[in-house]
Write a structure and sequence with these properties.
Helix content is 85%, strand content 0%. With 183 residues, it is mainly alpha-helical. It has 2 domains: 108 residues, Orthogonal Bundle (Rna Polymerase Sigma Factor, Chain: A); 66 residues, Arc Repressor Mutant, subunit A, CATH 1.10.10.
Length: 183
């Protein structure tokens, strides 16, 4: 049984060595063609080299996983084509993002921040509704709302008005209800 195991290990090592030799030979044979192919697809020399390395890294993984491809040249060029397309898509996305940012900066610099006529009309209507609702409040409710608008807390309003905190809460609740009913 030991001799069978040794034969299998030797055969695997021999096969791996042969595969390694074929891959190196394929790399040497296809590299110039891949450089020309990828260059014609618009990749820089630097990106071309990166793609070629990635292609053969994937090829080695493929060989280890499934064995040698029946048509390794076609496989290598198909993967190189796909990787070059991925590169172009990524570049297009980067350019789109940069272009978007340029347009956003342009718009931020050019857009008038003041409200347009429709927004002005809406703001005017809201102000009028607020004035109407505010005028319908009792004097204590108005005073309470004004103090709260200045940033005072209920406890501080209560001290200012000489009433309890609970009474301030009631006055504010009635005032808010009045605003909600009038808006």
């Amino acid at each position: 049984m030991n001799s069978v195991y040794v034969d299998v290990v030797v055969d695997r090592d021999t096969a791996a060595s042969e595969d390694r030799g074929r891959i190196i030979e394929l790399y040497g044979h296809l590299r110039p063609s891949l450089q020309a192919f990828l260059g014609s697809r618009g990749l820089s020399k630097e990106h071309t080299e990166d793609v070629i390395q990635e292609v053969f890294l994937r090829f080695v993984r493929q060989v280890l996983r499934s064995g040698v491809e029946q048509n390794p040249t076609a496989w290598v060029f198909r993967v190189a084509h796909n990787l070059s397309m991925d590169h172009h898509r990524l570049e297009r996305r980067r350019l789109s993002e940069a272009e978007f940012e340029r347009h956003a900066v342009f718009l931020r610099e050019r857009v008038d921040p003041s409200p347009n006529p429709e927004q002005m009309l809406i703001i005017g209507e809201r102000i009028q509704r607020f004035k109407t609702a505010f005028s319908q409040l009792t004097p204590k409710q108005r005073h309470c709302v004004l103090l709260r608008a200045r940033g005072l807390r209920y406890r501080e309003i209560a001290l200012e008005m000489g009433v309890s905190v609970q009474r301030v809460g009631e006055l504010m609740q009635r005032a808010i209800s009045s605003f909600e009913g009038g808006t």
